[in-house]
Amino acid sequence: MFTRIIHCPHCQTLVEIADDGNGGACPRCSTPLNNPIDQPAASNTEATAVEHAPVLSSHRPAVWLALCAALLITGLVAQYGYFNRDRLAQHDLWRPGLQLLCRLGGCTLPLLHKLDMIKIEERAIASHPQYAHSLLITVTLHNLGGYPQRYPDLMLSFSDLEGRIVAQRRFRPAEYLQQRLDPATGIPAGQAVLARLELADPGAAAINYEFSLF
Fold it and tell me: How far apart are CA 120 and CA 92, in angstroms?
């Protein structure tokens, strides 16, 4: 015959009973023991282990999601700035950050291009000394900024007495700069450069002319 040791539900005394379903009584308090398969209570050690078991923080997934989102946004902003750096580099707000990005990525930023800081000075127009029916125009471009600037395009327009445009031409820096000047270096900060324009004479109807910068 098999026996089983169980706890008395009243006094917690360990009692050995027959494992035949007949039960018995507690020898200490006479409490009937009619459930031989009664499960023993958890020990203090087990209770302590459960009580001190580590609990995973419910905030941890949210922290990781926020970190991944921040990294993704940072990457997208950096990518947008890299591929649009030529345009964004003209804004004082974005240029310092783009300079840092280019130092890390090995790129270069274009020169600043602020037309309001370039002044046209000392213009002169005359017949070309070498070519007939042609004009030679000189104009001084003064960079008023404290930084190098990209050479602008020069638009020269001729008009008649009624203000109608009779001739117009746009000159690139390579067309009006002297050969010793490199357009890629830009106009030095606070310096002035001489532009030399050669073009066909627009005729007697062209009595006025003006420059525009682009």
Answer: 24
- Name the CATH code of domain 115-213 (choices 1.10.3210, 2.30.130, 2.60.40, 2.30.42): 2.60.40
- pLDDT > 70 fraction of the chain, expressed in percent and rounded: 79
Q: Residue 39 carries which side chain, given as an amino acid letter? A: Q
* Model pLDDT for residues 57-68, shown as the tens digit of each residue: 556 778 888 888
pTM for the model stands at 0.60
Q: Which residues contact 69 (CB under 8 A, 6 or more apart)?
A: none
Question: pLDDT tens for residues 118-172?
Answer: 999 999 999 999 999 999 999 999 999 999 999 999 999 999 999 999 999 999 9
CA angle, 39 then 40 then 44, to 5°: 145
Q: Encoding tokens for residue 84?
A: 């649009």
Token pair recorded at residue 145: 């900024």
The DSSP secondary structure of 60-115, one letter per residue, reads HHHHHHHHHHHHHHHHHHHHHHHHTHHHHTTSTTTHHHHHHHHHHHT--PPPB--G
- For the chain, which residues make up each domain, given as ranges? 3-49, 60-105, 115-213
